[in-house]
TrEMBL record:
The protein, known as: Integral membrane protein
Transmembrane segments: 6-26, 47-68, 88-107
Keywords, comma-separated and alphabetical: Membrane, Transmembrane, Transmembrane helix
Amino acid sequence: MDRTVIAYVIYLVVSIALTVWVARTLSRNGRIFLADVLRGNEKLADAVNHLLVVGFYLVNLGFVALYLGDDETIRDTRGVFEALSTKLGVVLLVLGVMHLGNVYVLNRIRRRGVMEREQLPPVAPQQWIAPTAGA
């Protein structure tokens, strides 16, 4: 078997395994964060969490597939390691950027919700007072 094909197989196995592991970790731990962002609405948090995981898989696995090809033929074992380190390093960076992007957006939504909750009066108004003349 050609070394280039061996490098492709290793790249796909490791990249897919990393993507699945990161997605599961984010899904499991992100659910609590989403519930807070969505003010305790568990069903909505689960639905949003599932949609985010599906989108995460589509983007990352699509990137892994597009980044598979290479014009160079790998001639020795050192070339296998160099090609794998480059490809896996880029995949890990993309996974990290995707994760940070998700956390940033969700944190912005959470902050907006916290600000809205703080602007509500602590008790409901009990009466209405008409403005006085000259005030």
